[in-house]
Amino acid sequence: MKRLTKTSAVVTAATVLAAMVTTGVFAPAVHAATARYEAESAPATCDGAIATNHSGFSGTGFCDSTGTVGAAARFTVAATAAGSATLDIRYANGNAVGRPANVTVNGTVVHSATPFDSTGGWSAWATRTITVPLNAGSNTIALSATTAGGLANIDYLDVTTNGAAVGRRMESLGRGVVAVRSSSSAVLVSWRLLGLDPAGIGFNVYRSTAGGAAVKLNSSVLTGGTNFTDSTANLSQANSYHVRPVIGGAEQASSGAFTLTANHATEPVVRVPLRAGGVVKFLWVGDLDGDGEYDYVLDRQTSPQKIEAYRRDGRFLWQVDMGPNSTNQNNIEGGSSTINVGHNDGVTVQDLDSDGRAEVAVRIANGVTFGNGVRFTDSNNNRQHIAILDGMTGAPRATAPVPTDYLADGPMYARFGVGYLDGVNPSLVAFMKNRIGSGDFNLMFAAWRFTGNALTMQWKFLRGNQNLPDGHNTRIIDVDGDGKDEIVEIGFVLNGDGRLRYSLGPQGIVHGDRFHIADIDPSRPGLEGYGVQQNNPSGLRDYYYDAATGNIIWRHSASGTADVGRGMVGDIDPRHPGMEVWAFSGLYNASTNRLTQSSTSLQPWPQLGLYWDGDTTMELLNDGKFEKWNPTSPTTTNSVPRLLTTGNYGAVDAAQGNSPVIYGDIFGDWREEVLYTNAAFNELIIFTTNQPSNTRLYTLAHNPAYRNAMTFKGYMQSHHVDYFLGAGMATPPRPNITYQPR
């Protein structure tokens, strides 16, 4: 029996889950037109019986089909207009094997052998999400068993129409105003342009000195880059800055304010206090308190491990103790609640139920103590669960079991990320592995959706013995432009419904350490990928491919095998169209496969990209150094012109070796922040640009591909937007998103 225990209370996890399930699991919040069709209610029909012998169902029962091929559950649904619709099919399958079904609409099979995998028990409900075409008026949707086991138990069908035009439910961010001293007499003030801001929006900048009245600093409305240099401030006193948007000549409501303290150091840094504690390896951002600005969740690499949450000003919120099963921190076969070792994490942060406040997702096991003091216990130390924690308290809002397909081989390490698999709602996606004896690895992907009161598995995918190479990173991005995200590994891609889209294995791709997906070639439709290889027996070093189809466009090989441990993508040479790609065999223009810098001693190191100085070409983040490679006068790799050295400001990166705890567009304009801790691990050191820019781009955090990337860790690699960001770029298209109320 697994249970949540506190000294004065005992609550079983099963009870918590059952209570959450019966309150209406997985009814997507209405974003267009959503209707629920219960399997037990006319006009639905069931080839079998309407049963009630398993708990957790919605309504008054569920369809328990006969055990025959062709046994069906049928629903008559209405659509006001012809078009695509999203089906959320709630089901349970207590068998160890799946019960696939054909999905037909008006007599036509639109999805064949749709998997309805084991949910781990007949009272453990999951949701399969698919898209189908509907006619205007009445439609008959049937789920028909394709095996002799019959259907999984079917609870209900949620039908959502006209959802495509609404877009993704993303964070309603504030302006993220920040100010740093850029010289002894000047302050750079920077703020966000939001994804849905009108094209003609302008801004006024205000300063309040020592608590006095606010004074407008700009003489005319600012319509260029969203930053401003204040050269008139009395820097011996505290100065508070805010901005007011101007639309159609009228000032709008004020943003939140940022205060630069009196006699502040001249540095491109914001410092945030932390409690004393152990080494920090990773940090995640999310709006925990609903004020529109990012707060911080971080790990402590102690034994046992900890997770801590802080408001953006450093106010401590809560701590989770990962318990005795986090003390084994082996990077391949560690404990069942161990987080953030090797290429694994098992934690992420995002607003998963679209209520305006972020949650924390974490893989847990026996002995984890949540932020409210409640302890999770399970009689099997290897059995694992997913917990969704309240961002403000660290208390569990929902839990769900990790599928046990590979439990016999021990607990599974995980990489977590968030994507929009249906194009509208965020889903938690987990990459999970464990070792088979001392040899190969099991690999499972699974997706869950959290609806505010329940966490429901959408699907799982087992690699088995398929030729599907994986690596140390995962990306979630819309590779085919249909508005819905795919899950991308270095050697294969899953569609958002958990089905295999393609594998690069048959084209000779094996394991590798780094890969990228971006609009590398803006003259070519869609997105492209670039990856590197580790000890490929064919001699393959790196390759460039179509991200939607997996078709390899070009490849570089050499005699013998090599461990190509790094590879990078970005526009660092404006003389050539599109982006450059490079590993350790020279710098190439991707679109032409032209070797533009053949000397490996003069190419930059392929670590991380960074947007910092204000132009649209990429800077480089390499082992605590911000660098700007000069293509017309290149210098040796270890002497690339340096913009900043993080160690000069007290930053350390001991836990990661050569990477920050996170980097991304956290506040200010579209350029990126880089976060480290100090040597005592009691302060965040946040690098934010001190250089003005006329470039006007909406915050990268409102770009779907970029925001997804910020939820992943693994071996840290560069984030990318889904449009071309580089020299000569066009104005990016408006993102297809909606803000959630806060």
TrEMBL record:
Gene3D superfamilies: Galactose-binding domain-like (2.60.120.260), Immunoglobulins (2.60.40.10). SUPFAM superfamilies: Galactose-binding domain-like, Integrin alpha N-terminal domain. Keywords: Signal. Transmembrane segments: none annotated. InterPro entries: CBM6, Galactose-bd-like_sf, Ig-like_fold, Integrin_alpha_N, RGI_lyase, RGL11, RGL11_C. GO terms for molecular function: carbohydrate binding. GO terms for biological process: carbohydrate metabolic process. It holds the Pfam family CBM_35. Residues 35-160 form the CBM6 domain. PANTHER family: RHAMNOGALACTURONAN LYASE (EUROFUNG). This is CBM6 domain-containing protein.
